[in-house]
Specification:
Blueprint lengths: L1 E4 L2 E5 L4 H10 L11 H19 L6 H11 L6 E2 L1 H7 L5 H13 L3 E4 L6 E4 L1
Antiparallel strand pairs: 1-2, 3-5, 4-5
């Protein structure tokens, strides 16, 4: 991206989120008359960069469910566990996914629910 000041082309500037944050953190970011326009341009490029990165991030289908199953298997048979413990073991997995996996394992007879509500515990059989 090219930097403009008073409608004159100054120099090419590398506008990435990391570089902008680093410049702001060091206090080396320049102030210029077009400061009200630059945040819009920076956001546009930051969004474009993040969209490109999101397109690159992919997980295999079922990877999160598999992670929850592995976390459950790490508990000893007969040991009670809670959804909160599973959330700590799998921070990238949503609570809904954890509940879905617990429901599937209950239907298969691999675990049983002890109690209801927030205090519910699950025991691995």
């Amino acid at each position: 991206m090219w930097s403009f000041r008073n409608h004159r082309l100054l120099e090419p500037v590398d506008v990435t989120v990391a570089n902008l944050m680093a410049a702001l953190g060091r206090g080396t970011a320049r102030l210029d008359p077009l400061a009200s326009i630059q945040p819009v341009c920076c956001r546009r490029y930051a969004y474009r960069e993040s969209e490109e990165r999101v397109g690159q991030l992919t997980t295999a289908p079922g990877a999160k469910s598999r992670a929850v199953r592995l976390a459950i298997e790490s508990f000893h048979p007969g040991q009670a566990l809670s959804i909160a413990e599973l959330e700590r073991a799998c921070p990238a997995v949503s609570r809904a996914t954890i509940r879905r996996v617990l429901g599937q394992l209950r239907e298969q007879g691999q675990i049983e629910c002890l109690g209801t509500g927030r205090s519910a515990r699950w025991k691995r059989l």
